[in-house]
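for the writeup, i need someone to sanity check this before i put it in the appendix. the sequnce is what the collaborator sent (i think, or maybe the updated version? ugh). structure was predicted straight from it, no edits. if anything looks off just tell me and ill rerun, i have time this weekend
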Amino acid sequence: MPKYYCDYCDTYLTHDSPSVRKTHNSGRKHKDNVRIYYTRWMEDQAQALINQTTAALTAGGMLPPPPLPGMPAPPMLPGMPLPPLPMRPGMGMPPPHMHFPPPHFPGQPPMH
């Protein structure tokens, strides 16, 4: 009987049957390996987006288009305005406890 290779675990299972695959895929080590794989993939995607944004900013060009759904949002850069708080129609201003002081970036004097 042919062996089954699990890419996430980098191992061969002794048999290639649905029950063996199901048992393997429900195991803790396999689930950890899948989580690690996709965490690294997301980190790589985020780093690629950071590199693309940095290259666009240093070249003086326009910023890249917004990320696709499911992709991480680009990081905030020092000096960029904060995004507005989401508000429903008719809400008016957020209550005072929702206001936060402006961010402090290393190397800049604190704003008061």
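Residues 28-58 form the longest helix (31 residues). The radius of gyration is 23 Å.
thx in advance!!
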